[in-house]
Amino acid sequence: MTSLDLKGTPHRRFNPLTGAWVLVSPHRTQRPWQGQLERVQKETPPRYDPSCYMCPGNKRAAGIQNPDYQSTFVFDNDYPALLPDTPAAGADLDGLLVARSEAGICRVLCFSPRHDLTISGMEMADLRRVVDAWAQQWQELDERSFIKYVQIFENRGAMMGASNPHPHGQIWASSSIPDEPAKEQTAQLRHQSSHGSCLLCQYLSLEEASRERLVCDNEHFAAIVPFWAVWPFEAMVIPRRHAGSLPELSAQERDSLAGILKRLTAKYDALFQVPFPYSMGFHQRPTDGEPHAEWHMHAHFYPPLLRSATVRKFMVGYEMLAMPQRDVTPESAAERLRCASAADQATMEKPETGPSIRA
C-alpha cells in the first residue's frame, strides 16, 4: 500500500485493546456548526452547601447523616445499581432470551469535604489520599469471594450525568467482568501469548518514542491521547512500570499518579476556560483469584467537548449504527492539550498537514 497521510486523508484506526475501529475524518474540522450549544457553567460553587447530600454533616436523600469528615469519605450507595445479596438465578430461551442475575456492591467516594473542589484544584496531599482510598477500596473488595471485578470511576459535570456537583467518584464491584474490561482482558492475554510481552508496555514505548500524542508525563506515568481515540480530547493515563492494580503501586508511584491526574485535569480546564466535563475510570485486573500477569492497569478519560465550551460531540447516527467517527485527529488534540494554558480556539479550525505512516 502507499503511505497514509494521517492528518489529511479519511482513514480508520484500530484499537488493539478492544478490537474496534474508529473512522477519522480530519478534513471535516472546518465544517460550520449550527447544532445544539451547551450552557457554560459560570457560578462558583460554595465551599459548603447546606443542601448538598454529600457535604459533611448533611443528611443524604435516604435520610442518613454524613459524619463531619475532614478528608475522603466512603459510603455504600443509598440507591445502588447492584445488591450483594442477589441470589444466583438465570433464564435462557433457545439461547436468544438470556439473562443472569448479578450481585455486587456500589459505593461512593467523596474526594474532599469541600464542595467547590475538583481534582484539578485539589492540593497534592489531598489528592494522594484519594489515590490511597481508591487502592484501599479495590483491595478490600478484591477479598470478597463473589466479586470478580471492581470498576472505579468518576462522572464530572452535569453534561456527563453527574447527579451531584460535590467532588466524588463511584466504585461498582460486580460478580462478573463487565464488557469493556473483558474486551481488554482478551486483547492483553492474546498479545502476551503471541508476542511474549505486555500490550500496553509496548504501546507506551512507541508513544514515548514519538511523543506526538503525549500530553504530559512524570517519572512514573504518562498521559496520552491514544492513537485510536474516539472522543475529541480522550486520554489514557498509563504507568511506566507494569502493574495490574492500584494497590501494587509504590508510595512514589501513587504520588506520581496524583500528580499526573492533577496536571491532566488542569489542562482540560484550561483548554476552553471551563470546568471540563468527563467520565474517567480505571481499568485494572479482574478480582477472580487469577494472577492476570497480562494486565497493565490504566485510566481512561472520555470528555465530550468538541470545538469549544458550548459544542459537544454527540455519538449518534453513523456512530450508533456503523462505527465511531471523529474529525479532530488525536495528534491535533494532544497538541492542543499540551498547550492548553494558551489555548487558541482558531487552532482547531486550521487544516492539518503532517507526517505519514505506512499502511
List the helices and strands and how they pair.
Layout: E1 3-5, E2 11-14, E3 21-24, E4 73-76, E5 90-93, E6 97-100, E7 104-110, H1 124-142, E8 149-156, E9 168-174, H2 179-195, H3 199-210, E10 214-217, E11 221-224, E12 235-239, H4 251-271, E13 278-283, E14 298-302, E15 305-308, E16 311-312, H5 318-321, E17 325-326, H6 330-338, H7 345-349, E18 356-358
Parallel strand pairs: 3-17
Antiparallel strand pairs: 1-18, 2-3, 4-7, 5-6, 7-9, 8-9, 8-13, 10-11, 11-12, 12-14, 13-14, 15-16
Helix pairs in contact: 1-4
Overview of the structural elements:
- The chain is α+β, with helices and mostly antiparallel strands and 359 residues long.
- It is built from seven helices and 18 strands.
- The protein has a nine-stranded antiparallel beta sheet, with helices on both faces. A three-stranded mixed beta sheet has the order 2-3-17, with no helix packed on it.
- Helix 1 (124-142) packs across helix 4.
- The relative contact order is 0.18.
- The model is unreliable at 342-359 (pLDDT under 50).
By DSSP, the count of extended strands is 18
Terminal residue distance: 6 Å
Structural shape? globular
Fraction in beta strands: 15-25%
Describe, in short, the structure shown.
This protein has helices at residues 124-142, 179-195, 199-210, 251-271, 318-321, 330-338, 345-349; strands spanning 3-5, 11-14, 21-24, 73-76, 90-93, 97-100, 104-110, 149-156, 168-174, 214-217, 221-224, 235-239, 278-283, 298-302, 305-308, 311-312, 325-326, 356-358. It is globular.
Jot down its keywords:
alpha+beta, 9-stranded antiparallel sheet, 22% strand
